[in-house]
Amino acid sequence: MKIIIADDHKIVREGLKNLLEKQSGLNVVAETKDGLEAVRLVREHLPDLIIMDITMPGLNGIGAARRIKEVCPTAKIIILSMHADRRYVLEALKAGASGYLLKDSAFDELIQAIKAVFKSKIYLSPDITDVLVRDYLVNERDGDPTAYSLLSAREREVLQLLAEGKSTRQTADKLSISVKTVETHRQQLMQKLNLHSVAELTKYAVREGLTTL
Fold first, then answer.
1. Which of 20, 27, 50, 168 has minimal CB crowding within 10 Å?
2. Residue 64 CA neighbour count, 13 Å, CB half
3. Delimiting residues of CATH 1.10.10.10 domain(s) in the chain
4. Residue range 196-208: mean pLDDT, rounded
């Protein structure tokens, strides 16, 4: 089984690689700290499995998952994250992830998740399931707008890169689109969100979990 690991912490990537390659039949073919690079590596290697964090520079794990499923629909994606918030979990599943584990999970649970997703099952950590059920029963709110319901996938990608300090030209190069298209997306973002500066867009992106400072 060919595996790609995407996480912005090198020690996590190295630890996972060492543990996974001790298992029979598992082979880590590539690793990266960047969401956009993860998509490129998937296109290059056509892996069976991607184990990925949500918080990554360039493109977060949810955006990367969506693109990966377009590039390689058969690949399975397991999110390994510190975020237990319902919003992250649901959006990750909508983007195409088959599993969602918290980073404090035992390695044995990751192996269990891998086996489950390759049987076409959805695997969630018990703690994640508990969060979802409790949130649904106590705080279910219809119509609560989020960055994922308000913005298109491309708008979220542009927003993340601008919030991370990339210039219009750098953002255009990263996403392989024109400078004019980036400028148009920025104007649309400000109009949709009723925000009036890149600083306000940055605060919004951080608050919505698209990126971190």
1. 27
2. 34
3. 147-207
4. 91
Closest of 29, 70, 36 to residue 50, by C-alpha:
29
Query: d(Cα 189, Cα 159) in Å, to the nearest integer?
Result: 8
State how beta strands 76-81 and 99-102 pair. parallel
Whole-number average pLDDT of the chain? 91
The contacts of residue 152 (CB under 8 Å, 6+ apart) are: none
Q: What are φ and ψ of residue 123, in 5° steps?
A: -115, 125
Residue 140's pLDDT band, with cuts at 50, 70 and 90, is: low
CA nearest to 4, candidates 94, 26, 24? 26
147-207 domain in CATH 1.10.10.10?
Answer: yes
CATH number, span 2-139 = 3.40.50.2300
Q: Are 72 and 52 in contact, with CB atoms under 8 Å apart? A: no
pTM of the predicted model as reported, rounded to 2 decimal places: 0.77
What is the distance between the alpha carbons of residues 192 and 174, in angstroms, rounded to a whole number? 23
Kindly state the tokens that stand for 162: 């601008």
